[in-house]
Inverse folding.
């Protein structure tokens, strides 16, 4: 590897070690988060059966309940609030609050999905730029983030954790909430609606894009195929892996989390006529470049031709100067052209 690449990897490792609040949570199957019971069957088999059923009919798995297609919502200042279409066991996680950066007289809008453990200011700068470009941006606080975290918890560890069922629930919940936002924007008169997500927000956005026909385009900032592989091999999720090791194999975890993995839907995406942009970082230690290349190869295998952009940095260094401006340029330029 070049000297530049070694420096990038060193910076990535330093940045991931600055968070001193990471902890290893205990392994749990988490069937209760999915409203399921084992009834004497091994929990792993229950989850594998769920995964198979979900993949065979992903439209049903990610279906927006009818009462939430045009459900109630409230506008408070520059925030939209509504009840989550997918209730969970943690009450404060069921109230969704999204910040709106309105572009006056615009008929273009984008739902912005920040990264895992994003704080209230993450992606705000991007949203402000988009609004100045004539695109209303709606910043979605993902499940178990910000005001939705359990009391006393400083990280969004409930969204990605060694609790397999809760992780499935959280990603599915985020997809349903994104779809609800898209329908809400449609109700408000927006005719060209897109989605943009970063890291886990990219995963949520990708799943939303493929299951929500009202979305015209999407930008997926960091790309990887299998959810389990990112958790198992990524530098940012090494603490999650410690809670999983010895209790479940990578192969079984990959199968359990297949319904929330972009790779499971690449063939469908390749056949989709809607344009979308995939962004990868060449020195990423979280969404490893070889994982991104696996996705790109799958697209080519199925005849898909998405737009692809590469950043000369890593996962965490993307938020640093000058890379955050290059990343923002790719995102804003694409959305301005295709919304």
């Amino acid at each position: 590897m070049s000297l530049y690449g070694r420096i990038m990897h060193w910076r990535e490792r330093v940045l991931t070690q600055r968070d001193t609040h990471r902890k290893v949570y205990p392994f749990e199957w988490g069937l209760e988060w999915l409203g399921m019971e084992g009834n004497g069957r091994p929990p792993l088999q229950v989850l594998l059966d769920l995964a198979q059923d979900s993949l065979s009919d992903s439209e049903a798995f990610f279906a927006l309940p009818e009462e939430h297609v045009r459900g109630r919502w409230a506008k408070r200042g520059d925030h939209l609030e509504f009840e989550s279409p997918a209730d969970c066991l943690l009450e404060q996680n069921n109230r969704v609050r999204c910040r709106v950066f309105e572009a006056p007289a615009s008929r273009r809008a984008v739902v912005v999905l920040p990264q895992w453990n994003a704080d209230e200011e993450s992606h705000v700068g991007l949203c402000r730029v988009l609004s100045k470009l004539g695109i209303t941006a709606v910043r979605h606080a993902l499940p178990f983030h910000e005001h939705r975290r359990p009391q006393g918890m400083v990280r969004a560890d409930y969204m990605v954790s060694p609790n397999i069922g809760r992780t499935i629930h959280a990603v599915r919940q985020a997809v349903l909430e994104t779809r609800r936002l898209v329908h809400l924007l449609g109700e408000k008169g927006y005719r060209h609606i897109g989605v943009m997500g970063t890291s886990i927000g990219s995963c949520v956005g990708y799943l939303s894009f493929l299951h929500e026909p009202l979305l015209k385009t999407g930008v997926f900032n960091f790309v990887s195929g299998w959810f389990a592989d990112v958790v198992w091999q990524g530098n940012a999720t090494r603490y999650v892996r410690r809670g999983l090791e010895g209790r479940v194999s990578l192969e079984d975890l990959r199968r359990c989390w297949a319904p929330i993995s972009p790779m499971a839907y690449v063939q469908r995406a390749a056949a989709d006529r809607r344009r979308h942009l995939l962004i990868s970082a060449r020195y990423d230690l979280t969404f490893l470049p070889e994982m991104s290349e696996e996705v790109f190869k799958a697209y080519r295998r199925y005849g898909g031709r998405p737009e692809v952009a590469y950043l000369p940095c890593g996962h965490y260094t993307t938020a640093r100067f000058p890379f955050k401006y290059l990343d923002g340029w790719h995102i804003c330029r694409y959305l301005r052209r295709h919304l």
User: Anything to note?
Assistant: Strands lie at 74-76, 79-83, 95-101, 108-113, 136-140, 192-198, 215-221, 276-281, 307-311.
